Amino acid sequence: MVVNPTDGGSVTGANTYTHGTSVTVVATPQTGWLFVNWTENDVNVSNTATYTFDIVSDRSLIANFAHDIYSINATPSPGEGGIVSGSGSFYFGQTATLIATPNPGWEFVNWTKNGTEVSNQDTLKFQVTESGDFIANFKLADYTINCSANPSNAGFTTGCGFARYGQEITVVAEANSGWEFKNWTENGVEISTEAQFSFTVEGDRDLVANFDLIDGIEEFEGENAIPDDYFLSNAYPNPFNPETTLRFGLPEESTVKIMIFDISGQIVRTILNNSVMPAGNYVNRFYANNLTSGIYFYIISAQSNISERNYNKSGKLLLLK
What global pTM score does this model have? Predict the structure, then answer.
């Protein structure tokens, strides 16, 4: 008797027998193999592993075996969480490779089989010894939305924290007294000038709410409640760090512009921008926390709204930090 293929199994019953004797031959498959049939001279003589017959002549029997086929199935849970690959049919001892790929906004958790975790790696490799149904488990990703105030004492933010992919959240920047909101930035790039900023979460974010000190304009009591002429005093103190004051007077209701320039002529601060102001004495507290040390210039331009009087004057500032 012959085993085909030779590693498919084993047979018993080969021997020398007397004419007419009842003979039983048995084919036993190895692990991972299946018995197919008994053949003789390429003719199927039995489909059962145990084959009994009366012997009347010499016989040359072949026990045929075939690999057992196992089914490996992989599915995602939930279905929208991701995709899986590697399902199919395998021989005993073959290596199966299952791969779980999360969709945007989802994270891979683990592989389970019959409710039991078998791996927390997204790629699962194993030798096939039986059929099996594997589940790739996913969960919605949690992202961190960090917010901070710049400078830290200028204000505070709300609405930040943990969020899910696709969730719409609103972050809010609120200024402390003496400060005003400027903009939201991320990695140094402006993303919004609205203190209340809404967006859809697609990943971790690191947002900065930027604030500027308010350049306050206040009235003050001068020698005369209403000055006789326009004036702009020298800044005091000067040099300064980081605050100085500018005093100016308007004899008539005027349209006023006050700006601060750096040494290259670039505007670094607009204190008043064609603002209509009544006659009176005023003081401006100028804060330069966000400016670097150096020379700056202040310019006032006032045009009376009552007469043809106008006024222009400039001065120099020295910021030392």
Answer: 0.54
